[in-house]
Design goal:
By secondary structure, the chain is an alpha+beta fold. 37% of the residues lie in helices and 30% in strands. The chain starts with a helix and ends with a helix.
Amino acid sequence: MGSRNRKPVAAGGLLALVLLLSACGFHPRGESARPAAAISPVYITGLTDRNPFVQELIHQLQLSGVSITSTEDDAATILHLGSLKQQRNVFSVNANNKVVEHEITRSLHFSAEHPPGSRVIDNQELSTRYIVYNPGGELLGRTREAELRKQDAYRELAQRLVTRLSKIR
């Protein structure tokens, strides 16, 4: 008999959770960054195609249904990427005054023209921060973790850039 009373409470709790999430602006992953078809195809300048960030950006654009072109003449949108910058700051030290955590900030300046020749986004900056824990020892593990964190930062920057481009009309 007690389990019958729990079902309405659980359903009511689930309904309350859904209502709270929708009220706060929550959107399921992948629905917030849907660039308009009008910006496709995109031509990317400034960084080489071999750059890991550019590769991630191309991947994220393609996931959003945007095609990439290799010539400026075929582009509906031209994306100008500035250099990727990294800043490393001490975040914490241990009892021996040895640095054990760094805060890494990665930033990117960019501009966009849509249509080409008409700048709609001018010299904007995106940045992301994360903490790298380095207690000492385990060099291979630290190196791998640093590489994974860098890939995550590039993914986040690329997703945020796609979101900005999705607002172009």
